[in-house]
Amino acid sequence: MKIYNNLSEFIAPQYAVVTSGTFDGVHQGHQKILKRIRKIADQHNGETVLITYWPHPRHVLFPEDNSLQLLSSIEEKAELLSQNGIDHLIRLPFTQEFAQMAPEDFVQNILINAIGTKKLVIGYDHHFGKNRSGNFEFLKQNQDRFGFELEEISRHDVDEVGVSSSKIRNHLLRGTLKEANQYLSRPYELSGQVVHGQKLGRTIQFPTANIEVAFKHKLIPKFGVYAVLVEFEGALMEGMLNIGKNPTVSATEDVKMEVHIFDFDKDLYQQCVRVIFIDRLREEKKFESVAALKSALEEDKNAAKTILKNYRR
């Protein structure tokens, strides 16, 4: 997959099958659109083109509102789109000025002049242009003039999947990880750098790596203990991860993400790792003593090992 941060770098293929949107999480609903444009492109010996926007439009239009957390960073999104058969990914910088572009100008300047769209495929509720005034009806009414074919993924087809980025975010925030993973059609992931912590885990034989998430808008799942896989330098390792404030051993209000990797004793400080969330074990809780905490961690470890052993990768 080729990635473009500037439209001037893009050379239009002979038959461009195009879609556009934020595609946060690249979930099952998105995958339906991606499969469709891949099929059309193959039928016409063409190439797939996806237009996405960065930063996320809401972060630009409502800069004081930090409530929107995202399922994927721009790098994670690119990796997922590549896995789903996209040939060309165009990342348009979303600015206040761009938000004022009229739908007519978007179609003429971007879809026609820059990309040479031969077929456009969009979801049933897709909007674009100033005040989101561009939609399928606008495109359909002007289809002959624009000169490209148009296809809409119907409400029925999208609702049949029954998924949205918002629904997945809510599941992750509620701790219903299995449902989120099902809608994503893969385990939820995040990446970050291992940083120094208080090193309390090693005093009870559960050393942990403290992870600082690289992408500031990345959604962090609900506090609790999770069975996870940790990817480092191409290797997958089993472990368990805690998200929370460590109430048994810490008096601070700082939220930490700490992973204990099974049978692993190498130094990971300043290294980047990927965490893959397989299942949620329990809520975070405050134990009466450190001994009680250690006993619970032993149970967590056994439970996580059983889950990870049975997980089909």
Automatic annotation (TrEMBL):
Asked if the keyword Magnesium belongs to this entry, the reply reads no
Riboflavin kinase domain boundaries:
183-309
Q: Which residues form a coiled coil?
A: none
| Short name of one Pfam family | FAD_syn
Which pathway is this protein assigned to? Cofactor biosynthesis; FAD biosynthesis; FAD from FMN: step 1/1; Cofactor biosynthesis; FMN biosynthesis; FMN from riboflavin (ATP route): step 1/1
Leader sequence segment: none
Family listed: Belongs to the ribF family.
The UniProt function text for this chain reads:
Catalyzes the phosphorylation of riboflavin to FMN followed by the adenylation of FMN to FAD.
| Name of the featured protein | Riboflavin biosynthesis protein
Q: Which organism is it from?
A: Persicobacter psychrovividus
